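2024-03-11 09:14:02 INFO receiving multi-entity request
2024-03-11 09:14:02 INFO entity count = two
2024-03-11 09:14:03 INFO echoing inputs for audit
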Amino acid sequence: MLAALPTKCGVLMQHSTHSVDVKATTPKEQLLEILKEKSVCRGTFALASGRQSDFYVDAKLTTSEPRAALLVGSVGWELVKEIARARNVQVDSIGGLTMGADWMALSIGIAAYLDSPSRDIQTFSVRKSAKKHGRHKLIEGNFSAGDSVVIVDDVVTTGGSTLQAIDAIEASGGNVAFVIVLVDRQEGGREEIEKRGHKVVPIFTRADLVDRNAGRRSHIAIA
Amino acid sequence: MPADDRILRLLDTLEGGLSQEKLESLTREFNSLAQDRAETLVFFVLQKVCERLASALEGEGVSVERFEELTAGIADQIADILRDLQQGNGAIGKLEPLVITLFRNLGLFRR
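2024-03-11 09:21:47 INFO inference complete, emitting structure
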């Protein structure tokens, strides 16, 4: 059921008030349907980067929904395995900048555990600024220097939040194996991250969310 | 980097208008300056103003109109304070109007 709801920002957004009636078949198709239904908002928005857009993706409405979280986990974990195999890299832990990455990382971590408990894939969260007291930690959760990590993010626009997480991991002695984003808004962020030498693989792009049929055709290329 | 170069960089940052990402970056730099420079109170207040605004913008689909309401006057007032500091003038008197602007923009002003 769709409803036009006034939001804090005073914009009418179209998003669902009930569970999404998912008719898609594969987990990726199901996830795309939920994303389109719950997270795609139309209006004129100021993005975190300061740019303006007629299209806003509130991915947290999807990543925080239990059924969608299961799908993010299974789709994300299959992607992690596929890319790790193709690039011949090890993965010790998965995480990113709070809070866009948090639900996504944990969902993928749980899917990894269910699939293969012996792999012992851990998850972590990067704070936007170091804790002001105590141990001044910037990275919370299960990360150790020397770990090979997958950085995740829910939406990439300029790449700023993803790069902030990458910087924190590298400054703490970790190695970034590759990056997975739920939605690439196709506004240059992916290229900015790749300029730094990190492979970025989106699960979906803006084109998938705008074109109702594109998701079924979307193909993720692994270099 | 000498402190005045840091202020020049902040003024450059403010010239292009504000955004959530810029406010987060300004918050970090003001926090650092509050600990490095003599004008602790001024930088502490600037840090808090940027932090509050960044937090108001975080994780929301903020309409352009609301964004303009939230940020109106803030960049200019911060730049004015920074220019005063650069010239060696005290800027404490300009902190209250800045905080009033912040509260008004956030809709918190009750007076």
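2024-03-11 09:21:48 INFO post-check: Residues 13 and 22 of chain B are 7 Å apart (CA to CA).
2024-03-11 09:21:48 INFO post-check: Chain B has one domain: 5-106.
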